[in-house]
Amino acid sequence: MPAAGLRLRAVSRFFHTPCFPAGAGPDFVNAVVAVESALPPGEILERLHAIERQLGRVREKRWGERSIDLDLLAVGDAVLPDAAVQRRWRELPPGQQAEIAPDQLVLPHPRLQERAFVLVPMRDIMPGWVHPLLGRDVASLCAALPPKDLEQVRPL
After folding, report:
1. Which candidate in 13, 27, 53, 71 is catalytic?
2. Which phi and psi (to 5°) does residue 32 adopt?
3. Is 66 noted as a catalytic residue in this protein?
4. What is the pLDDT of residues 8-46, one digit of tens each?
5. If 70 and its partner were Cys, which of 48, 60, 102, 111 is the partner (CB 3.0–4.6 Å)?
6. Strands (DSSP E) along the chain, which ranges?
7. What predicted TM-score, i.e. pTM, was given to this entire model?
8. Which of 50, 30, 39 is nearest to 7 (CA)?
9. Active-site residue flag, 9
10. Sheet-wide strand order for 28-30
11. Where in the numbering of this chain does the 7,8-dihydro-6-hydroxymethylpterin-pyrophosphokinase domain appear (predicted)?
């Protein structure tokens, strides 16, 4: 079973959000879950990808249309593979973000702090989680987003 080794601890509300990137398909439903696991981060990500495959996802194009997308956003205060690599991916220019993907797991997710569709659901269940490199909690990261971005994330 793909989810073996993952224990569900909390689930955010479900939110209607515009597809990302724009034009990549229909709008999304986003949520965040917190799980408990003794598995290493890479194995957790592989379990998430196995769930996607079980539900019919085929990865053909980066940020292409998708029926399901399960991301590993963070694992506690882990920074993987290290702070320099995480910072390089976090600061990647927007034009390059859609073109290249890391060949290794990068945690926390490099653009988590920019995305209302991630932070708003995350705020539901873990507003006090602190980004280990930015030193800011989810609530303050969310509050720093443009109001237009926040308005597009609507509870279902």
Report:
1. 71
2. -130, 140
3. yes
4. 999 999 999 988 767 777 888 999 999 999 999 999 999
5. 48
6. 7-11, 15-17, 28-30, 33-36, 154-155
7. 0.87
8. 39
9. no
10. 28-30, 15-17, 154-155
11. 62-73
